[in-house]
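ingest -> fold -> write
write: protein_1
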Amino acid sequence: MTALGIDIGGTKTHLRFYDPAGAARDLVLPSAEWRLRDWDKDAVALLGIAQNFAGDIAALAVGAHGCDDAAECEAFQAAFARHAKFPVTVVNDAELLPAALGYEHQIGLVAGTGSIAVCRDAKVGMLVAGGWGWVIGDEGSASGLMREAARTISLHLDSGGSMAEPLVELMFEALSIPSAARIGSVVARQGGAAALGKHAPVLFEAERRGSLLARQVIRDGARHLADLVARLKRNGAEADVVVAGGGVIVAQQSLANAFLDEISRRYGGAMTARIYTGPPVEGACRLAAKLAGHAEPPAAIGRPAVSS
């Protein structure tokens, strides 16, 4: 019988189990193909996909983007329980990051299209910081960084700064901004986090070209990500490890380094930070194996990070 892990992302859903020889078997499909944002209907649809893919299932662990508090995780888990004949656990997708490296009761931090930090604390339960969406939050994410880059170049130009600054040039080109007066309206017309966040590489290209504005936006983004950790600690998390992952912090070394440096500066040896570069579904596989009473799957590999 199979211990199956599932990572439900905003755009794709990744299913994985390990065959008897220890080889990973994967299925990736668009989340829009099955997800309706109705707990019961989504549970039924996903169970059908899971059973067609994995066959006889011993246990299922799901990390779900959009299950952003304990009540939502419990509601989705209850929906599975109504239809599954095997144990199921549902967590937020950020919780898969520390689980992938074998940590329990530690902080998972996602910096991808959006940003959120989650800890399932042994004493106080599920704690969440961030995840408010690109319009008012998600600092340090791809969309948040682009919003702040637009704000930064607006202030730069408002203060008489040069149009020749690399971040200004690249932002105007990437977003087809016709004039300085239209920066805000062009950003607003992007319409969502994914559409805006896809342009985030221009920020890091500007940094490589020597943009001081880009460097400050990246450092501020890393500081805001570290603030998510600080909020969890203030709210009672006893974690001493944070595992960060997600598209932008994994792909952009300067953001990862700035985040690791910020954690080190704030906490010294009291907090260890790591960047997890593997697929988050590995964390779901480990949770499923534990739920089924199986041996853990092969160890996931994450990039060592600065102890802080």
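write: protein_2
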Amino acid sequence: MGALEKRLSGLPADIVRTAPEDLASHLTDWRGAKQGRAEMLLLPRNTSDVVEIVRWAAANRVGLVPQGGNTGLVGGSVPEPDPSGPVAVLSLRRMDAISPADPAGLSMVAEAGAILANVHTAAEAAGCRFPLSLGARGSATVGGLVSTNAGGVQVLRHGNMRSLVLGLEAVLPDGSILDQLTALRKDNTGYDIKQLLIGAEGTLGVVTRVALKLSPALAHRSIGWAGLASPKEALALLKRLRAAAGEVVESFELMAGAAVELTFDHAPNIRPPLAGAHDYHVLIELGAKASVLESVLAAAIEAGEVQDATIAQSETQGEAFWSIRETIPEAEKRQGKTIKNDISIAVADLPAFHAEALALLQQKYPGARPFVFGHLGDGNLHWNIRVPVDAPEGWLATEGEAARISLHDLLMRYRGSISAEHGIGTLKAAELGRLGNPGKLAAMRAIKSALDPLGIMNPGKLFA
């Protein structure tokens, strides 16, 4: 019996895959930028299987890389290319059950492998909604959303995933089950251990089931699109919206003109909402009647803050507006190599930071092109940098990383964050070590050491 066969003994045969064709799609990330290596793929059917797997991994010193939809952008769900020991990918995709929603308690329980789009459908069937949405909703899973503390386009009103988890069940590195799977709105009984698992990127345990916080269905919904000159004017428009509509601003998405135009090049079936070119665009969604949005946009145009605007006249047209925003990442991926930067900053500081970042890029990295879009309302921009058209071979590996570091250094002057919603993974581990608060990093390492002394949970992630 070979070494691999010996290690596999004790696991149910139905959950183990070792064929290269079964492993292939689990060993690379969505961008195709990282290629990892693992000896096996494990496909648990339920929490009991996960317990068996974790205990087996601890006994055999096998690293476990938990994986949901594998749509992350920082390498958190992909094994290392050269792991220090045997590694298995632990895919939760078979654990995809969703319980009926509780409309009275506005809650729902879903297994970690449940697809976000299916959660939306199940909530809507009960007259509710799960207010977290992102472009990868057709493949992103509940477990992945929890483990990365995902954000998306509705954080402005509803918060990120941390705000939408009422309770969870997880298997800890010693094989014990953390059972906080309740829909309680109040539970003041000491440490809230589940919060350690949210955003931990699978380094402290395996999330298996989640109690989700739902919201009532919207009585009214209006969607608008505006063209304007800069983020400064966009922020002025957001202030107008909040003054007129209160806390019903669901989404406020900023997109540079270059990002919007790229979607038209790569998806010719998408039609521009406005005539003419604009340096920046804003996509707005309100949980209010269209008349509210119409009056705010009219006032902003009269004040010179908005150059042009339109309001969707139907649900179909509104979804067409959203398709432009959601096509941007795919269009960017097809266009070529890009330096990804998922940053956050105080909303009031965002226009000044953006202007400084543009000047910095032009001065230090001529030819590099900013590619900016994101959630202005909560201070989170994807401040990406496209490689110069005539860049020599190897520019991305040398100048590209230097450009990322320069942007992060500027960000630190504004007391911002190098990761708003995508996590750390391996892509940003070195930068977290360089820029992170020493006290916080010490506490993180102490928690990791206490809960996972063998280091089997998602090895190589978070810590450089």
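write: annotation protein_2
DSSP finds 15 helices and 18 strands in the chain.
The first strand starts at residue 16 and ends at 17.
pipeline exit 0
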